[in-house]
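request received
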Amino acid sequence: MKITEQEIIDECRAICGDAHVETGNDIDPKYQRDWLDKYPSSPFIVVRPDSTEKVAALMKLCTATKTAVIPLGGNSGLTGATQAHPDQKAVIMSLERMNMIRDVNGDGRYMIAESGCIVENLHKAADQAGWMFPLVFGAKGTAHIGGALGTNAGGLNVVRYGNARALCLGLEVVTAAGDIMNLLPALKKDNTGYDLVNLMIGSEGTLGIITAATLTLVPKPAAYATAMVVVPDIKAALKLMNLVQNQTGGRLEAYELMDQVIYDLCVTNLDHVTAPFDYSPAFSILMEIAAGSPDDVKTHSDGRLNLATQLETILAMAFEQGLADDAIIANSEAQRQNLWAMREGALGAIQKHGNWVMSDVSFQVADLPNAIEDLKAAFAAVAPGPFCVAFGHMGDGNLHAFARPYDEDPKDHPTEAAAIKAALRDTVVKWHGSISAEHGIGQDKQAEMKQLKDPVAYAMMKSIKAALDPDNILNPGKVLL
Amino acid sequence: MKITEQEIIDECRAICGDAHVETGNDIDPKYQRDWLDKYPSSPFIVVRPDSTEKVAALMKLCTATKTAVIPLGGNSGLTGATQAHPDQKAVIMSLERMNMIRDVNGDGRYMIAESGCIVENLHKAADQAGWMFPLVFGAKGTAHIGGALGTNAGGLNVVRYGNARALCLGLEVVTAAGDIMNLLPALKKDNTGYDLVNLMIGSEGTLGIITAATLTLVPKPAAYATAMVVVPDIKAALKLMNLVQNQTGGRLEAYELMDQVIYDLCVTNLDHVTAPFDYSPAFSILMEIAAGSPDDVKTHSDGRLNLATQLETILAMAFEQGLADDAIIANSEAQRQNLWAMREGALGAIQKHGNWVMSDVSFQVADLPNAIEDLKAAFAAVAPGPFCVAFGHMGDGNLHAFARPYDEDPKDHPTEAAAIKAALRDTVVKWHGSISAEHGIGQDKQAEMKQLKDPVAYAMMKSIKAALDPDNILNPGKVLL
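response:
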């Protein structure tokens, strides 16, 4: 089948309507950039289908004409996974108009959302139904659920609820050939063949186009108890986490590690934050537990929740066992918000100080004490300067480690910046960690993944890609090299 | 490469040692049958490697000679997934000697177990480390973890901890070509490419041979509170489940539905069980919640646990909301064991009555009230007789529904038995359920799956199988047709 570019454009218009196809100079600039302004995008066509059937028709067209297709969600990804290379003639398929919540089923505790739904809108819909959709991360007001599933997004409470994968019961997917695969039913047990749902999740649009998802709703905690706890070291932090998990039956909602550098940066650079302690702890933990019984939400005569008393009891155990040196429990919602403001403001506090070498790596949780020591030593050897595990999602072994060569801009020290990145990679390799914990591969980490991934696994991924997308039209040039 | 049968046998002996290769008439009868004595097995060779390297060497041999390989665990599967067809020259690769627990890491809350480890031994190892490995099902004393992962086994507390898939952090797999893929690190966040671990889980040995797994350990509940609750109908049972989940922050460990038929059968046929009620409830629920705080395990002056009081409070809400008509809370471990003896004896109680048409299906949880009504009506229309949802893992939407045509042996009424099975299948189709909730496909449900699975998904599974096992030597003739 031979077809001209104009014929492809005309066919896209026939499928989606003129108003939803942009080409050439008419393409909105928002489709020509990424969140970090790092990966410019030069699509040949931008098309906005509003139904699964239209997505399927477009894929049939692209398969017939061997045209590359890049699915696009909220464009909040950090790895250049949804941009068109200047040298490829690619269609960007924006799913923004597929933004219907098809069903919210309270009894069954699930909802079915189209891939263009903004994550925060799903939070609201779940809340209205009396439940919670617990996938929460920084870009929640922009990111689409389709993109969150495509990259298997993580976030702030993975320690309790898992990442995007764990919250997805089923998918509707359009294949490279333009066929619609319906695996939407919210079945908690279904052993009929291979797990195609999890194969699609995290594949960054290279194996199929997610058009809708069935998502799990969880009980909405009636209350939280929150504390900032000073720990003697990271090993103690680990043991404290296990103590809390054990004592609460797994009701730990967040467990975020802060070191002295980030503590000081927050206290100094965030005007709206009140310092929790009158000194700078070497390591502190922001922890939060959720109510787990009707008793937990009863209040004492002094207005405090039973849940807070419970946390106090657990922290008393921690003091006794030498796992905590100091602690402050939030006694009001305002105090709780102050502790969270530190955590949520951390990135801003860091950036106010200047530019850093940033990262998104993970380790086995039990390896964190050693891995962090190694990172610190390696960075100091390369170019002494501040190093911090700015927000360590400790429950998941996920660190966003930051470093600044000689406390100066990495751009002014490219050799040292590269050496810091190499040291980071070496430490990940040494401890069998991951070079991409929650942001995915995109274009950013393709070469590194090819180099570091188990070679048998890499070859298997290539085989699967070739089998499911033989013409390599689904987001080509991403993830795999 | 041409090679004689004798040369294959010799090579197996060279790899594993003479003592661990059986052929022809020397093959132990245990390798020639299945759990249900339904699928006879005629392997050409039985081989018992004791290391991943030996598994890899054997796979290289089998790939070079295009010899079929059937991985075998504890042989407790119910679908004929691990038997050799009489017309195929297959090697049965028993993993029974790969039974080392390589590591138990309490701090990191994981263990690494070889695939031949018996599930119950993993329970013990986890317990000794102060944690729990919560994959519990009837065959736990026989089944291997490799088989449990190969079939994505479920069980009694999936409502709390998920099925085998949810408890596996990583795998070591030998591919068709005999390469070793190491995805063992216990990473909670790792977004480097496609999810090969979940692809292998549930693939019943058709995509690779699982040789070891990294398994999650969870907090061990310090106490349980258990009740048998009479509910007005299944809709109320569903709402009650959600109420308990909400009030306990998800600490529901089991929620098992019993109808009047199975209640009566248990009370009549199980001598060691004391009837919880002095009448036969139409629908009752065995529910159990776990301790979630240090307070929960404190005892009142009458010796009762706080946790039991908490359950009482929740049940009081249920009575008020019309979700419960009657209830008995276990006030001692003996009373708790009596309630569980009913549940655990249910299959025996049914079988004591005679033969039934059995099933393993699942529905969306919210569809259970309607689906059960449909099943009841359909069975009554075909051949009136007792019908029961003997043990409904209600939290997972998983029903083991049983029926007896005219209250007689299905073997004596083959037409009606077939019609009952057809009605079951039609009901599953109508409600978008699954024909295999937790037992897998094997040989038993191949044709049915091919007929009922989403055709795009079926074709995708075939593509993946062809890509990963191009010579079709990994458990051929199972799962896919």
